[in-house]
Amino acid sequence: MSARLTRVCLTGAECTGKSSLGAVLGEHYGATLVPECSRMHFEAKLSRGDAMVTTGDVVSVARLQAECEDNGAKDARELLICDTDVFTIAIWNERYLLTRSLEADLLAEDRNQSEARIDLYLLCAPDIPWVPDGLRSHAELREEMHLLFRHRLEETGRPYLLIEGDPQARFEAAVTAIDALLAEHRG
């Protein structure tokens, strides 16, 4: 009998080291890494001079992210690492549009009740320096967003681990948690 696919998602406020940690973890485990597909969508919009974020954008990127995860799962052996997910996108909707998207929330819940559910969220703390990149905005909101992510994770009962400290501490904490999950899923 083969072990079931373990799914880990990096989540949290902007510029908290999610993509960097995801890349290092993907390399460490030889795991499939699903990129932040929403970033590609919004970079393309910005390149066309469109900086407006709409509910339609959020629903589109949520569906795109789900598709990217499903495609990544087809190629994954034992571990799938996601550099965001539909749940995370639904939370970002609240940040940018100041309201929740029922459609994004329902998609996130549907995935949470299926094989596509995330086994562990790595909630990256805003305790590293802000690095502007042209797409990120509002460094001053990182702590507020961090608290919102933590609240939503707890409110929905999703398993998570707070990831904080320097890059090595973050990596070691993540590896310890992932190793435990992999052992559990192998058993």
Query: Widest sheet: strand order?
Result: 2-3-1-4-5
Largest sheet: 5 strands, parallel
CATH homology superfamily: P-loop containing nucleotide triphosphate hydrolases
CATH class: Alpha Beta
Total domain units = 1
Let me know the average pLDDT: 90
- For the terminal residues, how far apart are their CA atoms? 10 Å
Q: What structural class do the secondary elements suggest?
A: alpha/beta
Helix and strand run: EHEHHEHHEHEH
Instruction: Estimate percent helicity.
Output: 40-55%
Feature tags:
187 residues; alpha/beta; Rossmann fold; 7 helices; globular
Q: How would you describe this protein?
A:
By secondary structure, this protein is of the alpha/beta class. The chain has one domain (6-186): 3-Layer(aba) Sandwich (Rossmann fold). 55% of the residues lie in helices and 12% in strands. Strands 2-3-1-4-5 form a 5-stranded parallel sheet, sandwiched between helices. The chain is globular and about 50 Å long. It starts with 5 loop residues before the first strand and ends with a helix.
Short description:
This protein is α/β, with parallel strands linked by helices and 187 residues long. The chain has helices spanning 18-29, 37-47, 55-75, 86-97, 102-112, 142-156, 167-186; strands at residues 6-12, 32-34, 79-82, 120-124, 160-163.
How are the SSEs ordered, and which strands pair?
Blueprint lengths: L5 E7 L5 H12 L2 E3 L2 H11 L7 H21 L3 E4 L3 H12 L4 H11 L7 E5 L17 H15 L3 E4 L3 H20 L1
Parallel strand pairs: 1-3, 1-4, 2-3, 4-5
Helix pairs in contact: 3-4, 3-5, 4-5
